[in-house]
Write a structure and sequence with these properties.
mainly alpha; about 90 residues; about 90% helix
Length: about 90
């Protein structure tokens, strides 16, 4: 039983060490920054979309909403790719 406990603890320690590597931490920070920038850009586009809709320009507002969604989705995919690359 004692050997199993030690083995489990060793595996857990190795897992934590791998997750906490400097490269993975840097990649996580970079991914977070990409997501935050994408969100900020999307928020700005959504505000522009609302302004267009407020003046009766629904088509321009809808186009800006779609662009905001695309920007946010692209940022999420880029962030995911950054994190996956660091895990390899």
């Amino acid at each position: 039983m004692r050997i199993v406990t030690i083995a489990v603890a060793a595996v857990g320690a190795l897992t934590l060490a791998a997750c906490g590597s400097p490269a993975e931490k840097a990649a996580e920070k970079q991914a977070d920054a990409v997501e935050q920038q994408g969100e900020a850009t999307a928020d700005s586009l959504e505000k522009q979309a609302d302004a267009q809709k407020d003046v009766g320009n629904q088509a321009a507002g809808e186009a800006l909403d779609q662009k905001a969604d695309a920007v946010e989705e692209s940022a999420d995919k880029t962030a995911d790719a950054i994190e996956q690359k660091a895990e390899q």
